[in-house]
Amino acid sequence: QVQLVESGGGLVQAGGSLRLSCAASPRTFTSAAMGWFRQAPGKEREFVTAIRWSGGRTSYADSVKGRFTISRDNAKNTVYLQMNSLKPEDTAVYYCAASSIIIPFPPRKYDYWGQGTQVTVSS
């Protein structure tokens, strides 16, 4: 059974940093791309960033460009989200997701989702 497990969320002051991780299991699980999404209270889930396993192509939402960086470790089947210069409006539950879609990029459909990790940025 495929599992995506996020970790690394927490409470941070504005201007601070957090690094989220998303580990995919089993080790034999493969996908074309991984994405990070977030959902703030009372708002719809929104795309944050995505990365292709092969080649490492990335895509970012305008709201996080220059502040967030997605990366992957193919050997560990893990993707990371480095979040710098955090703002109160970044407060949300962050979800990672896996997609089997190669084109288009970023994928519009994801097959598996993690349970989410809370990120809270205080002002």
Task: Explain the overall architecture.
This protein is mostly beta strands. It has no helices and eleven strands. The chain has strands spanning 3-7, 10-13, 18-25, 33-39, 46-52, 58-60, 68-73, 78-83, 92-99, 112-113, 117-122.
Note the topology.
Blueprint: E1 3-7, E2 10-13, E3 18-25, E4 33-39, E5 46-52, E6 58-60, E7 68-73, E8 78-83, E9 92-99, E10 112-113, E11 117-122
Parallel strand pairs: 2-11
Antiparallel strand pairs: 1-3, 3-8, 4-5, 4-9, 5-6, 7-8, 9-10, 9-11
Helix percent reads under 10%
Task: Give the tally of β-strands.
Answer: 11
List the uncertain runs. Answer: none
- Secondary-structure-based class equals mainly beta
The radius of gyration computed from the alpha-carbon positions, rounded to a whole number of angstroms, is 14 Å
State the separation between the terminal residues, measured CA to CA: 40 Å
H/E topology pattern? EEEEEEEEEEE
Query: What is the percentage of strand-forming residues?
Result: over 45%
- Total helices: the number is 0
Largest sheet: 7 strands, mixed
Overall pLDDT score? 96
Write down the oligomeric state.
Answer: single chain
Q: Based on CA inertia axes, which overall geometry fits? A: globular
Task: Tell me briefly what this model is.
By secondary structure, the chain is mostly beta strands. It contains no helices and eleven strands.
Give structural attributes.
single chain, 123 residues, mainly beta, 7-stranded mixed beta sheet, 4-stranded antiparallel beta sheet, 11 strands, globular
